[in-house]
Amino acid sequence: MALAGTQKVSLTVRTDDFPPEEVIFGRSATMQACHQKLQKFAATPVPLLIQGESGTGKGVMARYIHSRSNVAAGPFVSVNCAAIPGTLLESELFGYEKGAFTGAYVTKPGRVEMANTGTLFLDGIDEIDLGLQAKLLQLLQDAQFSRIGAREDIAVQIRVICATNRPLEREIAAGRFRVDLYYRINVAAVELPALRARMQDVPQLAAHFYEQHRKRHKSSVRPISPALLRLFEKHSWPGNIRELENLMERYVILGSEEAIGAELANWERIPATSEMPMNGPIHLKKVTRQAVQELERKIILSALEANRWNRKRAASDLRISYRALLYKIRQAGLPPKRSSHAAPRPPANIPLASD
Question: Which segments of the chain are extended strands (E)?
């Protein structure tokens, strides 16, 4: 189970592959404070808002809360609001009646209905358009909704958990999010820290992902060395826990610390001093342009990694158009698509001494 969230819809929370609490919360003071909050929130049926950067584990936290709530025996239904086009999201959430529109040949229950007596997790709540926000507000206020094309409301008993990686106050100020809905979903709230703010948890998380993916891929690769772990502890982890998990999976598959070390070096790389004359003129504009290009490449790659290479979501996070992102991906020499198993283009070869 991915610690950094999920893109899938599930009706149950499996306990056999769920990360243990000591892995989820680690040892850092910030995560221990989150742990105390979530234990209290889990016991109440009020709506919960989970905030945090992409890849910080919001999906796993939602499952953790569900598994310890009074609706744990009910279904857990996860909806990635950003992955479903706005025109289809209403029918996905609320379902439709037969004949409601062209192509509605049968009655289809939505995911709200599927979550009855359990938990509905709306990941990317900020992606829902204003019209659909009004219908969601009715669900939260009245505990009932109507399918598209229906004349009667359906009552449900569900716990609603929402997640976002954007400050909703900013979305409200921009007119993209209803203030009344914000106060309705923000009865209880928790902010998940970025991985760079809980670096002491990196070794434990790395060990967990190593073991998880070693079993999954039936690999005999040895655990990472202290030398590579020191590189982990110096890395800023812009993609947070998801980036760490992806990196550990690539290590398990490739079995090469040099390849992983080269990838980490790519993030920290600036024009090397050996490329510039030490006792002569320096072409400032050229060096600056190279540094800016490399920084932009790092930021784009970070956004792509954080969004599992969903380029539309990455463009949204970067506040640029989808077309502009495609151009910049080509300009930076990045592949248009990337398999989770694909090794990155190493910019440099840095030998790692085994400790």
Answer: 48-51, 76-80, 119-123, 144-145, 154-155, 159-164, 188-191
- pLDDT per position as a tens digit, 217-231: 999 999 999 999 999
Q: Which are the contacts of 84, defined by CB distance < 8 A and separation ≥ 6?
A: 92
In this model, does residue 353 exceed pLDDT 90? no
Q: How far apart are CA 170 and CA 136, in angstroms?
A: 20
* Tens digits of residue pLDDT in 237-250: 989 999 999 999 99
pTM, two decimal places:
0.73
Question: Could you tell me how far CA 207 lies from the centroid of its own chain?
Answer: 20
Look at residue 8 and tell me whether its pLDDT is greater than 50. Answer: no
Beta strand 188-191 pairing with 119-123: unpaired
DSSP summary character for residue 196: G
| Rounded CA separation 226/228 (Å) | 6
Following CA atoms 161, 119, 24, 28 in sequence, which dihedral angle do they give, to the nearest 10 degrees?
Answer: 30
CA 288 to chain centre: 32
**Residue 262, CA distances (Å) to 7, 177, 196, 234, 291 in order:** 29, 42, 20, 14, 18
Task: Please give the Cα distance from 242 to 62 (Å, whole number).
Answer: 16
State the pairing for strand pair 144-145/154-155: antiparallel
On whether the CB atoms of residues 217 and 256 are closer than 8 A, the answer is no
Give the whole-angstrom CA distance, residue 31 versus residue 25: 5
Dihedral (CA of 88, 94, 95, 100) sign = negative
Residue with tokens 């939602």: 62
Residues 6+ apart with CB under 8 A from 280: none
